[in-house]
From TrEMBL:
Transferase listed as a keyword: yes
PROSITE patterns per the UniProt record, alphabetical: HIS_KIN
Name this protein carries in UniProt: Sensor histidine kinase
Domain Histidine kinase: 290-382
Gene Ontology molecular function: phosphorelay sensor kinase activity; protein dimerization activity
InterPro entries xrefs: HATPase_C_sf (IPR036890), HATPase_dom (IPR003594), His_kinase_dom (IPR005467), PAS-like_dom_sf (IPR035965), Sensor_HK_TwoCompSys (IPR050482), Sig_transdc_His_kin_sub3_dim/P (IPR011712)
Amino acid sequence: MLELHQAGAPYYPEFFGDERGSATVPVPIYLVPPSPSHTTSRAELQRLINSIPVKIVVVDRDACIVAINGACQPYLRAVGLDLHLVAGQSYYAVKARFAAPPQDARSVSEHVAALCQHSTPFSQTLSFPLAGQDIRMVVHGERLPGAEDLFILSHLDDEDPESETANPRRYHLSMLQAEEEERKRIARELHDETAQQLALMQFNLMTLRNSDMSPQANDAYQAMESALKAIQDQVRTLSYLLHPPELAEDGIEAALAHFTRGFARRSGLQVEFRCLSGPIKRDPDMEIAFYRVAQEALANVYKHADARHAVVRLRRTQTSFTLEIEDDGRGVPEHILNGQGRDIVGVGLSGMRERVAALAGQLEVRRTGAGTLVTATIPRRRQTD
Ligand SMILES: Nc1ncnc2c1ncn2[C@@H]1O[C@H](COP(=O)(O)OP(=O)(O)OP(=O)(O)O)[C@@H](O)[C@H]1O
Ligand SMILES: [Mg+2]
């Protein structure tokens, strides 16, 4: 059963921490698989809709807003509303704040009423002036799959269907941001749930330590203890790699210093980290991109380079941030450098390239005299659209 908070109850403002602007994608949206056995919590629903770069409103049978995502915020602000104020309000009342022609507005209201009362899906165009611009959008309504009494209204800017590809960088950036949010959530879950359960197991196991055991039972006990320890280490490392806490707290310099130390320990490679400029001003998009590039580039050094030594260099110039990862290994094969064999190699290099390109930057991979040099450059003042 789908559990949602009641109309009028406060929702969770922490899910609206980042604003993805008004990037829109003309695709139908299915939030919850239409399986009757599917269960989701309201926090899960909120998280799901907030990771979608389309303006989404979920209403109940009375057309009261029970959930709304961050993509709506720019439009709401333009008419003097805020996400925090509209939860629990009537969808009709909020819509009335936008100066749509009466005929359009009435038609949308009728469709919403039919949707809420009879689950009748619809798609209807709505136009209105907003902050000096003529906005035209398609309102699409349908019952939320799996939920009897909830209805999803998505609002797609009705532009050229090419618009998604016309602005791929911005779209891709919002997808990457959603992916990072998801990693953060999994890291938290591993830390708060899985690690706690393992700690409980360890505690229970310890109570056996002093009991009389046959030699076979003792062997089994020892094997279980060391397996448990290995799992705990893996969970801790995985949770850390998914979302390194110091990246959000202390910034890229501290995160890379910590990561390279841990990587050297785990891999046996000599890894050095150098920050070649003064303190680097916080820039979360650049920080995540550089962190993921360093992770993948060092993983490649470990897997492919047969190197002994790698160095990671971070620097800031007047106009850009640069991250370099250099190793003293066998060098990237020529056929990879000139783009051949793209279909037989992995996704690492192309993923790094896409991440950096989403921030209007560039990734260069080249052979040096001895080894490989990967350079990611991201402009400091950038426009992603
Ligand atoms: N530092 C390096 N030294 C030598 N070869 C490299 C290095 N980095 C990448 N390569 C070569 O480039 C290829 C493509 O790298 P890429 O990261 O895209 O894929 P992968 O590492 O093989 O797979 P995946 O990253 O998907 O796990 C590698 O298979 C390897 O041949
Ligand atoms: Mg790789």
